[in-house]
Every structure is written in C-alpha cells, then in structure tokens.
Protein: Peptide deformylase
Amino acid sequence: MILPIRAFGDPVLRKVGKDIDKDYPGLQELIDNMFETMYSANGIGLAAPQIGLDIRMFIVDVTPLAEDEDYEDIAEELKDFKKVFINAQILEESGEEWKFNEGCLSIPDVREDVKRKSTIVIEYFDENFVKHTETFSDIRARVIQHEYDHIEGTLFTDHLSSLKKKLVKGKLVKISQGDVSINYKMRFPK
Ligand SMILES: [Zn+2]
Structure:
C-alpha cells in the first residue's frame, strides 16, 4: 500500500524516533509499504517519520544508481544495496567532508549541496532483527546519513548556511501549505 509522504512542516518530521522491538505490530507489512511508497516517488531512501511514525526505522535502495555513469566505479557495490535499518545508531563519522546535492521526498523541488563526512560506522538491526555493525562510505554513507537525520528529527535544510536557509525559506513555507506540484502521494500539515 502506498502511504502519503509527510511534507515539510509536519511536526512528526521533528520528532526523535523511538526504538522498536521485533514484536512491533505489522512490522513486515510496514516495511513492504515503505518500499512501495518510496518506489512510487522514485526515492532511494525513506524514513518512518516521513510516513507519520516517530520510530527509528528507515529503508534505502540505491540500486537505480548502479546504472548511473557517475557511479561507474562502485556499480557492483550499489547494485544490491537495498537495506532496512532499525534502531540505528551512528557510532562514528570520519573522513573528509564532501558536498553532495541532496533532495528529500518531504521537501519536493528543493535541492541543495550539503557537506557531510565520507565514512560512517553504524550499528543497526535488519528486518529479521539481526544486529549488524558496518562501515559505509561514498553515496551509500550519504543516503544513510540523510535518512538517519530523519530519525533524529533533522532535515537536510537544517545543514544549510544561514544565507541559503533564507533563500529557501519561501519555498519551504509554500511546501508546508501544499503549494507545490508533485507526482506522488503527499500529506500536508495545513
Ligand atoms: Zn529526506
């Protein structure tokens, strides 16, 4: 089932997610619905707050990027990179900061360069509640960092300079009022 994606301004996007356990009601169905919702919007990541739940879960599927010539060198790594992250904790971020032009399904039509460190160590449970501690870098780390922010109540626009924030403010207000054209299902706060 495709769920409506919560737009900028929805208070759920500002909540810090709570841990869940393996008995969380309807967990598998929720995961399936999140993937279906993400694909319907051509996203490569989606976090639970974006569908209205303040829990520590997000999904990523960067396999479409394996076809992209920008990622030729890591196509092999990207082509199976589809994962569920539950109760995630980033343990360490290291390496050079690099800029990437980020966007967000909750903030349509806004794209801005964001600087983040290149490598992360993250502890999480997968969809079968098996615990992992793994290191990721490149675009994989980037997508995880963006989604991880969501379960901490942070949005990519929070990372912009104060000047850039001023420049996008009008657009953000419009999004929160539903004044934006989109081709996927969204729910607006007002
Ligand atoms: Zn996002």
Remarks:
- The pocket of zinc ion is lined by residues 104-106, 146, 150 (CB under 6 Å).
- The chain has a mean pLDDT of 96.
